[in-house]
Amino acid sequence: MSVAVVLVAAGNGERLGLGLPKALVQIDGKTILEHSLEAVSSFQPNQLVVVAHEDRVPEFQELVQNSYAGKFSVVPGGSSRQGSVANGLQLVDSALVLVHDAARCFTPAEVFHAVQAGLETSPCVIPALAVTDTIKRVSGDQVLGTEDRDQLRAAQTPQGFHTNLLKAAIAQSTEVFTDEAALMQSAGHSVSFVTGSPLSKKITTIADLGERTTNQRTGIGSDAHKFSGDGTLVLGCLSWEGLPKLEGHSDGDSIAHAMVDAMLSAAGLGDIGTNFGVDRPEYSGASGEVFLSATLDLISASGYELVNIAVQVVADRPKIGPRRLELEQRLSRIVGAPVSIGATTTDGLGFLSDSRGVAAVATALLRARG
Ligand SMILES: Nc1ccn([C@@H]2O[C@H](COP(=O)(O)OP(=O)(O)OP(=O)(O)O)[C@@H](O)[C@H]2O)c(=O)n1
Ligand SMILES: C[C@](O)(CO)[C@H](O)COP(=O)(O)O
């Protein structure tokens, strides 16, 4: 049977308190919306409806357009989660629908598949996890009792439904529920569950964002090469007409080499000399792009992925300012993560002061792959 995903992303993110819709908050250089679209992409539904914050629909539309390859629609959200689900459902013409919180942006594809499989025998299936705290029932400041936690589960998303049943339940409902499974139960349907995932934790508060920034490592790298007097300068994987190339075992691209060293340093894998030194003739004359790609393979094999790189160029020439954006775009595309470029001179001091060479310093941030 065909299956749609309704991705609800219209919330204000008030508990996060960052003053913008939660789906537009960035984690490791990507918005929560983009992360959640990656999860949906690996599931590959027949149809995707994204429910956007009502004040920011064009921005949501552009983000989805740029990061989702399949067929999709974007609709504005309502003032409650249930209202947002109702808006999204209007466009669903698939037999099954999975309603997913964008805020659970790291949900593995297996959970989507397990929920979909459960719908073969049940009108409503949710992922849920066992509760690890002891749960108390309270009134005011008094504890009234202790729940039997073996009988409790924490509900997650995606929650799966036969579309016609969910549409009817929403149309008839006079109450607002915090999830669609509760709404379906109030309409008399049975609800079953499959095991959810700890990776599906909902980003709700600043502490939840903090948890995602652990398992990160920073690294630093620097490099300097002198001008050779002939050829054309290659720096930051761009050609600079009118300036001579830099000397080196490779193409002398100080920016690319500083980036390589920063990534290797962050991964604890040594430096450019220990990995691609003069004892490796295949790297003689190699471009910065070759070193950067080989380094990305090394850090990936050691279990890390790149979050971002910051570079500062130290040189009298070339003047970086006029081509800074071009440099950032070229390098970001090569490494698949944001690269920011700054530049300075040495105030007339040292070998860089009389335009004899180009130095660069870089820092890199890596995170362990989840
Ligand atoms: N009117 C709303 C409210 C919530 N949601 C979505 O429902 C999911 C779960 O909601 P929650 O975590 O509560 O998000 P927010 O409403 O943004 O958070 P807060 O309550 O702190 O404002 C989120 O993906 C959120 O974008 C929605 O689409 N429309
Ligand atoms: C749907 C949900 O994520 C299941 O746990 C939850 O009910 C959403 O609640 P919120 O108050 O809108 O965050």
UniProtKB/TrEMBL annotation:
InterPro entries associated with the record:
IspD, IspD/TarI, IspD/TarI_cytidylyltransf_bact, ISPD_synthase_CS, MECDP_synthase, MECDP_synthase_sf, Nucleotide-diphossugar_trans
> Any note on cofactor binding?
Binds 1 divalent metal cation per subunit.
Keyword check for DNA-binding: no
Q: Which Gene3D superfamilies match?
A: 2-C-methyl-D-erythritol 2,4-cyclodiphosphate synthase (3.30.1330.50), Spore Coat Polysaccharide Biosynthesis Protein SpsA, Chain A (3.90.550.10)
Look up the record and name the cofactor or cofactors this protein needs: a divalent metal cation
Output the GO biological process annotations, alphabetical, semicolon-separated.
Answer: isopentenyl diphosphate biosynthetic process, methylerythritol 4-phosphate pathway; terpenoid biosynthetic process
Is this entry keyworded Lyase? yes
Function of the molecule? Catalyzes the formation of 4-diphosphocytidyl-2-C-methyl-D-erythritol from CTP and 2-C-methyl-D-erythritol 4-phosphate (MEP). Involved in the biosynthesis of isopentenyl diphosphate (IPP) and dimethylallyl diphosphate (DMAPP), two major building blocks of isoprenoid compounds. Catalyzes the conversion of 4-diphosphocytidyl-2-C-methyl-D-erythritol 2-phosphate (CDP-ME2P) to 2-C-methyl-D-erythritol 2,4-cyclodiphosphate (ME-CPP) with a corresponding release of cytidine 5-monophosphate (CMP).
Q: How does it assemble?
A: Homotrimer.
Which protein is depicted? Multifunctional fusion protein
Q: Which organism is it from?
A: Aquiluna borgnonia
The gene for this chain is ispD
